[in-house]
Amino acid sequence: QVQPVESGGGLVQAGDSLRLSCVVSGGTFSSYAVGWFRQAPEKEREFVIAIDRSGGIRYFGDSVKGRFTISRDNGKNTVYLQMNSLKPEDTAVYFCAAKPPTSYSVNYSLQAVYRYWGQGTQVTVSS
Q: How far apart are alpha carbons 5 and 79 in whole angstroms?
């Protein structure tokens, strides 16, 4: 079984930076694309950013691009989400998810393409 585990969440002030980690145990980490999603209270889960197995980055939109970056360290089975210039609207539970390799192209923003999900880590940004 493949099990992603998030860490690094906490309470920060607007404008601060925070780095989340996602350790993916089991399976062959280097073969997985990994995405980050977030869910605010009483809101649906939404896509944030993803990285494919080759290191290519997929963004949600312009509001994320330029503030958030993603990277991976295959030697540590870890994906990092670097969040800069945080805003109160970034407050949410952040989930990482791993996508097995496919023989066809997929939309990385869709929850359905990811098979393995973590439990989430809380990020709270105060104004």
A: 10
CB environment 91-105: b (16+ within 10 A), e (fewer): bbbbbbbbbeeeeee
Assigned token pair, 59? 């963004």
Detail the DSSP E strand segments found in 40-120: 46-51, 57-59, 68-73, 78-83, 92-99, 116-117
Taking the chain, what is the end-to-end CA distance rounded to the nearest angstrom? 40
pLDDT at 87: 95
Query: How many angstroms separate the CA atoms of 114 and 116, rounded?
Result: 6
**3 state DSSP class of 90:** helix
- The two three-digit tokens of residue 94, written as one number: 């952040």
Strands 57-59 and 46-51, by their bridges, are antiparallel
Residue 101, classed as helix, strand or coil, is coil
- pLDDT tens for 59-82 read 666 667 789 999 999 999 999 999
Give the torsion sign (CA, 17, 75, 52, 111). Answer: negative
- Run of H or E residues at 66: none
